[in-house]
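In the design runs reported in the main text, the only information available to the sequence generator was the tokenized backbone. The following block is the verbatim input for one such run; it is reproduced so that readers can re-run the procedure and compare outputs position by position.
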């Protein structure tokens, strides 16, 4: 993903990256939630779809590969184990500029659901297997993560409140 930069790239590439977090204003968050419900998705899908389209526009290309983190605890026998089971899902999208946003949101949901069904293979193992077959794993330059944390969540008459440890 060749994104334009505000400075020249370093002489030697590194794995160093940056995180940019920003809050979504409450009225916009409510509208995104309404769109997600109307599209039978979680809030992740409209945000992810918008991010893909923005990156495609910035990069000036239709072929976009984005990584996203998945829980990696699909198997019941892993539930009680201590440790980090996060896996990277590599998702490739054809960002057709003629497609409507609603159509794009449906396609995003389809690709994400299909990818979630195949997260039991670790990313590194999959890349190694592809290399052994002469194929290449698409390079992930951008990772999208919905790390939103809500202090209160209400649904169906039930309200959950985040509490600090020891409370």
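Verbatim output:
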């Amino acid at each position: 993903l060749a994104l334009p930069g505000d400075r020249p790239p370093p002489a030697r590439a590194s794995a160093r990256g940056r995180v940019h977090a920003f809050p979504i204003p409450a009225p916009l968050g409510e509208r995104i939630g309404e769109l997600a419900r109307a599209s039978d998705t979680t809030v992740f899908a409209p945000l992810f779809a918008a991010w893909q389209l923005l990156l495609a526009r910035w990069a000036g290309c239709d072929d976009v590969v984005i990584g996203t983190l998945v829980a990696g605890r699909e198997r019941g026998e892993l539930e009680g184990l201590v440790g980090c089971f996060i896996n990277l899902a590599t998702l490739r999208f054809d960002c057709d500029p003629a497609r409507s946003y609603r159509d794009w949101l449906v396609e995003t949901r389809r690709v994400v659901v299909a990818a979630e069904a195949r997260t039991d293979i670790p990313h590194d193992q999959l890349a190694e297997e592809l290399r052994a077959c002469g194929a290449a794993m698409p390079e992930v330059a951008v990772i999208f993560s919905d790390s939103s944390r809500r202090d209160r969540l209400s649904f169906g008459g039930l309200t959950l409140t985040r509490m600090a440890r020891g409370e």
